[in-house]
Amino acid sequence: MIRMSRRQVLGFIGGIATAATILPASWAQAFPTKPVTLAVPYTPGGASDVMARALAARMADDLGQPVIVENLGGATGAIAAQRVLNKPADGLQVYVGSANELILGPLATSSPRFKSEDFQMVGKVGDLTLAILSRGSLPPNNIKELIEYAREGNPLTYGSVGPGSLYHLLGEKFSQLTGAPMVHVPYKGGTPLTTDLIGGQIDLYLGAMGATSTPLVTNGSGKLKLLAIISPERLDLFRNIPAASHTTSLKDFSYSLWLGLFVKKGTPENIVQALNRAMNKSLSDPVVKKAADSLQVVLAQPQSQAQAEQLYAASTARYRAVFQSIGFRP
């Protein structure tokens, strides 16, 4: 039997500890050991859903486990958010969202189910193109005509993905700046909203372009009209469409909206980093690029998780200010 002195035993243990620090990252992380779920806060077919499904397959390749998309629409994203928060902070539940759900959502109710700070941003997927769309049969053909039409006393309805969402606030801000009276009609997701806009059940939509709406405003079908772009940057596809902010009464009406991945606050750093790497690798995949192009989403450049957190903090401050500027009360 070999006997070891106390000094030899301590040296042996120290050697094991040193070796552990230089193990391959995949050994040290051991994540994920189970399927990962991407929780989408809307019904199938919207921008969040389409991008989540494109990302899922690519991320699964990198993570070595299936990545499942689960649609949990309703309550301006709170149902999906609560599902993630009710699970352990182990990175297996990932929220696919934006300022709509995680920043504005909690402000839209007098008894919020969660706070923005309950989530940690993994990374930015891309920026959605925001625009003002109308039903094809609405008389105005541009933003100036729309303002004049509303000021003449013609009642207007506009849809959003829920009370307190950015799309709701854009409608209220538009009404406030132009003096145009408008009635808000909330929906559980972009797909049913777009369906009703095409069918003429509502007049306007101030929000993100989608896979359904983009072809209808570019193929001359007449089912939808693209009256103005709200985003600060105009894509080549819409280079001939005026920016809403170029109209005198809407000179400050310029907003952007990103889409990102989030986990529950307190998720271990190595897990957040693993998800960040998998997401960043997915952004250069042709399938993901095709999905983004169909939605007019400008894919983000890969960024660190720390940069994502800075973006989240800055966006939280800005959109809370927008919320307050219109005097919204839950």
Q: How many domains, in number, for the residues?
A: 2
- The CATH superfamily name of the largest domain is Bordetella uptake gene, domain 1
Quaternary state reads single chain
Overall body shape: globular
The poorly predicted ranges are 8-28
Largest sheet: 6 strands, mixed
CATH topology of the largest domain: D-Maltodextrin-Binding Protein, domain 2
Number of DSSP helical runs: 12
> What is the average of the pLDDT values?
87
Percentage of residues in helical conformation: 40-55%
User: If you compute it from the alpha carbons, what radius of gyration comes out, rounded to the nearest whole angstrom?
Assistant: 23 Å
Content-based structural category: alpha/beta
Q: What proportion strand?
A: 15-25%
Tell me how many strands there are.
11
Write a structural description.
The chain has two domains: 29-127 and 257-325, D-Maltodextrin-Binding Protein, domain 2 (3-Layer(aba) Sandwich), CATH 3.40.190; 130-250, 3-Layer(aba) Sandwich (D-Maltodextrin-Binding Protein, domain 2). The protein has 330 residues and is of the alpha/beta class. It has helices at residues 6-21, 25-29, 47-63, 78-85, 99-104, 143-151, 166-178, 190-199, 213-218, 269-282, 286-295, 305-325, and strands at residues 36-40, 67-71, 93-97, 119-128, 130-135, 156-160, 182-186, 204-208, 224-229, 257-264, 297-299. Strands 2-1-3-10-4-11 form a six-stranded mixed sheet, with helices on both faces. Helix 3 packs across helix 10 and helix 3 packs antiparallel against helix 11 (286-295). Keywords: Plasmid, Receptor. InterPro entries: BUG, Bug_dom1, TAT_signal. This is Extra-cytoplasmic solute receptor.
